[in-house]
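Researcher: I'm preparing a figure for a lab meeting and need a structural model of a single chain. I don't have an experimental structure, so a prediction will have to do for now. The sequence is pasted below. Please return the structure as tokens so I can convert it later.
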Amino acid sequence: MEVRLYQKINDKTECLLCPNNCKLKEGQSGLCNIRENVNGNIINPYSGIISSSGIDPIEKKPLYHFYPGSEIYSIGFFGCTLKCQFCQNWQISQNKPLDYFKKISPEDFVLYLKKNNFNKIAYTYSEPTLYYEWVLETAKLCRKNDIKNVIVTNGYLNKEPAKELLKFIDAANIDLKGADDQFYKKNCNGKIEPVKEFIKIAFDLNVHIELTTLVITNTNDSMEDCKKIMDFIKSISTDIPFHISRYHSAYKFNLPPTQEKTIKDWVNYAKNHLNFVYGGNVLFDNDTYCHNCKSLLIKRNFYLVSLIGIDNKGICLKCSSKNNIIM
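Model: Understood. Here is the structure written out token by token.
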């Protein structure tokens, strides 16, 4: 599939999708390993190829405030705009599809969703924005057919394509992988400012957003890192749900798992600044409490979810407060 987001510069073609802005000679692929220069045009030869799919609890995305307790159909792709050395899904994010993978059109995919009565779709597992044209077209069709669009993303996308895509996205979990450029450059081959800008754009477009930081042993786990991230999130809104997730070794990182005390310390600090903070990959701090009266609203035991303190509009039954919950 030929893409629109590029410009020609002398004997090269510059891809304008993500902040890498790869300038490619004929036959070259970008840092993503997916988009390539063919006859002076940037194409995605793998558009429509799905790496994996299945039905997930929506809490697995993780989304705790968007139709809690429901299921969502999830699909993944290949490749990524970043090169995170600790990637949990590196088998698909750092590789190209094999020859035997089949393509599916947005029209056929949405027809499949409708036939099987799926009312929510998550573009997830690897980096969905890399398949921008396919995801955008699919999201538009889903919107027309009353199917909710969810994107799980690193947020590493240039402003104009971000604005266009996010108009059709209902909810997003966005990775805020670290506190500063130093972390992004060293561990992800990227920059933090485009991610921050993506988060701001999503919020301004009224996308329901939740943020996740994977706290990695001796890497981004200091309280100074935590404070920097808190300052950024609360500058946008104290109602953004924030997931503080425990790291386990993966891909090129073999550091020991993050200490649970570190996650607890982050959660406790964050709760002094944000209304909804959760521990990830741990067995504590997974429940939702009313930000006003502190009543228990949602009880979670892994992916078993009990809605015990909210009505069918997400309103607290005790004090009638809104808690940024979409039902």
